[in-house]
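This part of the workshop introduces the protein records we will be handling. Getting from the letters to the C-alpha cells is the skill we practise here. An example says more than a description, so a record of this kind follows:
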Amino acid sequence: MKRRGQSPPASPSAVGRGVELFDIVLTMHGLDSFEQELKNCVEVSLGRQKLKVLRLDRILASNQAANRAKDQLVIPVLADALAASKATKESKRRKKKRPAR
C-alpha cells in the first residue's frame, strides 16, 4: 500500500544494500558551480564502483545555505562529524611529526 506523498521502499536487490546512506542531490544551495565542486570531491568506493562525493564541509555549507527544517536537523550532526574528522586528522598528523625515541 502506498501512502500519499511517499514512495514505496526500494528493493535492496534493485538498488543494492546501503543505498539508504546516500542522498542524491540535484540542486546544491550556496556552493560553487557543479564543475568547481566536482574538482574538490572525494572518491568513495562502493563495491566495484567509485563515486565522487562532496566533501563533508561542502555538504554542511549547502545545508546551512538551504536552511530548511530538515537541514536544521542535520546541521549539528554534520558539524560534529566534521569537527571529529578534523580532530582525528590533526591527531594523526601530530603523531607523524613526533621524533622517534
Remarks:
- Residues 16-97 form one domain.
- The helical segments are 12-15, 34-39, 56-66, 69-97.
